[in-house]
Amino acid sequence: MTTASNPKSYTAYQFTKKGGKLEKVTKEWKDPDVHQIVVKVLACGVCGSDVLVENQRLGTGLPKTPGHEIVGDVVAIHPSEKQFKVGDRVGSGWHGSHCGICKPCRSGDFNMCENEKIDGVTIDGGYAQYVTLQSEAVCWIPNDLDPTETAPLLCAGVTTFNSLRHMNTKPGDVVAVQGIGGLGHLAVQFAKAMGFRTVAISHSEDKRELAQQLGAVAYIDSSEQDTVKELQKMGGANVIMCTAPHANIMQGLIPGLAVGGQLLILALAEDKATIDLSALITRRLSIRGWPSGSAKDSEECVEFAKQMGIKCMVEKFPLDKAQEAFEHRDTASLTSDQPLPLRDEYFPPSNVVATLIVKHAVVDENGTPQGLIFHRTATIPGEEEDVQTLDPNAYHTDRILERIPAQ
């Protein structure tokens, strides 16, 4: 067994009963088995789908430690491990393992494995100080990336990146993003970086400036404008990425597609859709879904985001506030009086309240990342400093406020 100096036990947060709250537990250290590695968690996302563990919608059984946006350092490996070594910076997302013998696996489509395990859903995840991962579902993470900014790329990031690159579309086509939240703010950035004419759709005026700064060339306020008509003025959308979980809204976007267009479903909606199938025939439309990606997909997503300056914005919570972070995973959007600063301006002027898409993360008492990030929108008052005097690559105050990539 190759291992660092590790504790006999560690802290984790689990759901122990259906509909209950996260409970702090002490777990005994276990050395990794064949095809497993143990990782010290530096950051782990709180995703909306973590509620599937709380409500047991998938019937995966309890107790369970949630969390499937995991970044950390390898601290123990099995003697037979050939891919990873102690000290490696790694990550793992929704896809937790594959069997290698079912038909999809034999075709190399590991994400569709018939016996797939899911980090933090069917197996214990990253709401903990340490996590045991299946090595076939682990990707390398560059050491020069902030773990708290990188972890969300392993779920929201790879879902938007991987799905869009597999659509039947080409640079210059219109790609619309419905919902500018956790998935949506990354979808806008990826669509722009891939060369698409990116259109953001939201239900109020509040997100316009933010969406434009993230890369949208057009913004549709669905509370004031007819979304379908606006899209058709542009010739229709070749792809509409649905990132907000409202089935009725999603299906209402179908007439906004161009001939041969694709409605891409990325959010799990509780309500049911009733779709007029005739439109799919007469205009050659299609409806597709996409469930994140494999370890290789995650690596490619992280590398693409690094090269193109695509960022997740984060806010940190200590690990002992795991329940608070979980409860904030879907807090409401708040309004913006002025746009966010562009390019190298880091904070807005002192009298500005700016709407930011952020994520919550876990740090220890020294500010070291320890886990838990979630998507939300927060209103943060501007600082007193002149924006021109601040380092755009540094953090200021105890809130993480990520600058918008240069346009």
UniProtKB/TrEMBL annotation:
Keywords: Metal-binding, NAD, Oxidoreductase, Zinc
A Pfam family assignment: ADH_N
GO MF, any single term: metal ion binding
Family, similarity comment: Belongs to the zinc-containing alcohol dehydrogenase family.
Protein name: Enoyl reductase (ER) domain-containing protein
Gene3D superfamilies membership: Medium-chain alcohol dehydrogenases, catalytic domain, NAD(P)-binding Rossmann-like Domain
InterPro entries membership: ADH-like_C, ADH-like_N, ER, GroES-like_sf, NAD(P)-bd_dom_sf
Record-annotated Enoyl reductase (ER) domain positions: 19-335
A Gene Ontology cellular-component term: cytoplasm
Names of required cofactors: Zn(2+)
